[in-house]
């Protein structure tokens, strides 16, 4: 399939700085992963792809704890975003999450379980149908997906399942930021005798009921997941609601 | 060109030296009949072979008391040979101060003598020992050849213990791990602090309970004020005649705790914290940057949970 625009035209239209424009690439995975072809086929089938420095994926180059690898996706420099899909090429379950930044900037922080060293990528689909791809390599000792959750060893979590704690920051250097933590084992199903049990969907809405962001989460998201969003301007409380794959619902109000 | 050749030669020799798997252990006298093997203030790698830890021994009237056995079978064997160059007395007891691999993976070289540790340390070595060893194989490579977990065979408790005619005071603390054994050699006044004390090297925190660790440091500092105290052997870094390593360790832990707590309250996430430079007072401390990053991974989730739950 042919690209709708040439790279030069995209760079020009986006008024990109020359260094970023030079980093735009149509082919040749910058992370040089043997699995890239398969990833592209699975997640981006048939659509045009652009490796784009405006899609920033921030993660430590070496992960101390493979059960809790912090990842921040920041695609706020890219206009017209419809959907963001995050995946890790070499994970036993590659798809980490998807988010749809409807009324919020395309920024999401979370933590992920990684089984071995792997690229962690975000593919961002813009309104014109192009996938803009960014990513980074994370080196890890492994064991993140096939190690049991801490919850599996303790019955305590059952009493607090889907309990949400969160805060919004309306002043200071992180004004506009929302952070929340949800109690959930996020079991991958890769451990014998422990079926997959994970949060599937979270919706963030403002006080007027307008949706700010929808997030679909999959097994690799870490136990007791923590999310960081950027609301831009804090305007009243925020509601987080969602469900897990066993149909358990949650709803929480996060006051400013 | 000549210079290039010379440096290539140096490089090659350096590698050759590493390949003989000789830790070049030499016993440093600490007090009369008390010696330590002082490791490098580095992280594990294939050049140091894991010799980044302090081990020690006391020559008692009827035998030798060994405190920690090092990171590998080879280390344990070479350590035992080095002890043999100081005394021909037999080893009477090996003590493992805690369940971290650089302190007990030399146990195999002492499989013929009693090996003692606190009950929780024995449990920790039995349950996590293999995973720890695997990790050291990855970081230190062939230096680890043949190393397997030899668990302690005897449970030690806090209190007085006479070994081979020498009186020890065992102090059971925790904070660096769930069980940290401190040994006071009563005759010499030497305090073996294990990894509750780091000197000139950033502390490690994979199993730390910082509040307990700080309390343990207070207990230890009180011991250094006793009239009999003469020297402190930290788990990592040089021996001192004062409490400086305890104060250094405390300063690092206080800074770390405060930094993580403030960051959580300010709404930072883990990646924001990881991107921050070290403050000037720790910028030159060996392995500070890597231990800071590791500690963020270990300790930030709890700080973050407290902040999000409004505590």
From TrEMBL, chain A:
Name the record gives this protein: Quinoprotein dehydrogenase-associated SoxYZ-like carrier
Domain Ig-like SoxY as annotated: residue spans: 43-145
Top-level taxon: Bacteria
InterPro entries: Fuse-rel_SoxYZ (IPR030831), Ig-like_fold (IPR013783), Ig_E-set (IPR014756), SoxY (IPR032711), SoxY_sf (IPR038162), SoxZ_dom (IPR014880)
Stretch forming the signal peptide: 1-21
Gene3D superfamilies linked to this entry: Immunoglobulins (2.60.40.10), SoxY domain (2.60.40.2470)
Residues of the Sulphur oxidation protein SoxZ domain: 177-253
Keyword line: Signal
């Amino acid at each position: 399939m042919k690209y709708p625009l040439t790279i030069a035209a995209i760079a020009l239209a986006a008024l990109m700085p020359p260094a970023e424009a030079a980093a735009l690439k149509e082919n040749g995975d910058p992370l040089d992963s043997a699995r890239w072809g398969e990833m592209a086929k699975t997640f981006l089938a048939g659509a045009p792809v652009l490796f784009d420095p405006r899609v920033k994926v921030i993660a430590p180059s070496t992960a101390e704890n493979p059960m809790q690898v912090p990842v921040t996706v920041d695609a706020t420099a890219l206009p017209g975003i419809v959907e963001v899909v995050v995946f890790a090429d070499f994970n036993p379950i590659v798809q980490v999450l998807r988010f749809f930044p409807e009324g919020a900037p395309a920024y999401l922080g979370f933590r992920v379980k990684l089984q071995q060293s792997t690229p962690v990528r975000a593919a961002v689909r813009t309104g014109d149908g192009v996938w803009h791809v960014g990513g980074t390599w994370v080196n890890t000792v492994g064991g993140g997906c096939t190690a049991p959750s801490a919850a599996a060893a303790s019955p305590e979590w059952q009493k607090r399942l889907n309990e949400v704690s969160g805060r919004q920051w309306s002043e200071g250097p992180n004004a506009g930021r929302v952070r929340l933590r949800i109690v959930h084992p996020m079991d991958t199903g890769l451990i014998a005798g422990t079926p997959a049990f994970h949060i599937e969907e979270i919706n963030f809405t403002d006080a007027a009921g307008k949706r700010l962001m929808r997030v679909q989460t999959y097994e690799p998201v870490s136990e007791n997941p923590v999310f960081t969003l950027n609301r831009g301007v804090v305007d009243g409380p925020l509601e987080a609601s969602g469900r897990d794959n066993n149909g358990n619902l949650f709803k929480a109000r996060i006051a400013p | 060109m000549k210079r290039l050749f010379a440096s290539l030669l140096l490089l090659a020799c350096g590698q050759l030296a590493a390949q003989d798997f000789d830790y070049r252990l030499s016993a440093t006298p600490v007090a009369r009949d008390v010696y330590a093997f002082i490791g490098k203030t580095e992280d594990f790698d294939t050049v140091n072979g894991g010799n980044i830890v302090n081990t020690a021994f006391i020559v008692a009237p009827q035998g030798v008391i060994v405190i920690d056995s090092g990171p590998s079978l080879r280390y344990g064997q070479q350590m035992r040979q080095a002890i043999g160059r100081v005394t021909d007395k037999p080893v009477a007891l090996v003590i493992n101060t805690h369940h971290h691999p650089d302190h007990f993976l030399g146990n195999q070289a002492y499989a013929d003598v009693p090996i003692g540790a606190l009950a929780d340390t024995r449990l920790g070595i039995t349950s996590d020992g293999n995973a720890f060893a695997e990790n050291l194989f990855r970081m230190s490579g062939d230096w680890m050849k043949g190393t397997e977990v030899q668990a302690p065979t005897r449970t030690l408790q806090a209190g007085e213990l006479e070994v081979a005619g020498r009186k020890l005071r065992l102090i059971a603390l925790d904070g660096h791990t769930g069980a940290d054994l401190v040994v006071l050699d009563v005759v010499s006044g030497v305090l073996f602090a294990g990894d509750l004390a780091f000197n000139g090297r950033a502390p490690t925190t994979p199993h730390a309970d910082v509040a307990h660790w700080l309390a343990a440091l207070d207990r230890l500092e009180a011991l250094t004020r006793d009239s009999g105290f003469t020297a402190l052997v930290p788990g990592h870094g040089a021996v001192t005649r004062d409490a400086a390593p305890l104060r250094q360790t405390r300063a690092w832990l206080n800074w770390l705790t405060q930094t993580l707590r403030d960051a959580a309250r300010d709404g930072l996430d883990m990646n924001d914290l990881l991107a921050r430079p070290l403050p000037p007072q720790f910028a030159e401390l060996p392995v500070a940057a890597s231990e800071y990053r590791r500690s963020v991974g270990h300790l930030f989730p709890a700080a973050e949970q407290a902040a999000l739950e409004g505590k």
